[in-house]
Task: structure prediction
Amino acid sequence: MKLSRETISAVWAGMRYPVLNRLFTFACFSASPPLGSVVSFIWHGGALWCTFEIVSGRRRLSSDRYMLLSAILLYTYVAAGLLSFLLNDPRWEYAHTLIPLATFVFFPFSYSIWSISHKDDLSSAAALAGMTAGYGALALALIQYFILGMRVEGGAGNALVFATVTCMTGSVSLAGALMLTTRWQIPMAGGYLAAVLAVLLSGSRSVWLVMAVLSLAILFVCHRQLRTLLKGHLVKTIAAIAVIATLSSGVLLSRVESLSANWAELAENGEYDSSLGLRLALWKVGVDRFFERPVLGNGPHHTRQLIEDGLADDFDLRAQFTHFHNGFLTLLVETGLIGGGAVIALFLLVAWVTVRTLATSSEETARFGAMILLVFFLNYALGGSFNLVMGHDIIDAMFMIFLITGLLLASGTSMQEGKVMEAETEG
Result:
């Protein structure tokens, strides 16, 4: 049978993309804790190429149902952001506040090209990358905390962002150790413990809570596999936990004492000029600004000024913030019920896919994908209630990476087999 040049090209692409996507997955999951914004450049560079491939007609969009629903919700959020900008005193000097919206426009294109893969290769790459990220995060954390004497920021330059992405990748390493058939099971479990220590050393109290909840959720889902993993390694596990407790005891005590002091100042003196007090003040200002413009919000370009004016007028505080330290409240203030509601609906969709997959599927890769979605959901839904959901380049890139790989592995269709069969049929 003679194959045409187009057929050979299609088959070659089907062979080439699985290898590239496996490497791309590893790079995306491993880069954020030690390299910070490098992960944003990696993912956005790949997303631009994926968009070119689809728009030029060289590849086709995936028809996966949950991908299409997610794309509709993300595009609704983007449209709400643009409309809100245009309807609320738009100015050229504020145009840069719209740039983060572009990240979410790439979603269906990135998903479609990423799906030209073997799912088991992607799951293995993600788990190994999570392990690598955990060890890399710990190495930086130990240097920054014990040698440089600074608050741990990893490669992100921000303790909170570093802790967030380390929590996410470390949790993937734990899920891989418990759910995947791999000879890297023990090193992956070690990567998770390394991530835990790195998060503790960062001093990010809200992420401590997120990591505790995530760990309990993963261990609950994988309790049978946990017993098998601990068999023969119980002493090593106890020793590792003891080391973590010893190395992190100083930062744990200091951050808990700080929180207690903040609470005392607020309760006894009504003092809002503290970490805790400022959060509560920001939430009050945010709720008031949301109710002023509930449908389409105040626009992403007015957030900083709204916060500065609200803190000064309502609490006599002079402080500047770029968000309300509650990601969902920030979305509602900026894009109203239309934009913020679309993002909340996306999280509900992710929760549905996660629960449905874990309840009905026995396939290893699909269940691992559901665990990636569980990490995505709990990190952004719980952690975002204290910090950011969207609006930071690293956070947004990880949002896309986890959403795409989780949906693809849990419920998506690999376009690899279909592409090769299509090419063979044409030949």
Notes: Residues 5-246+352-378+391-426 form one domain.
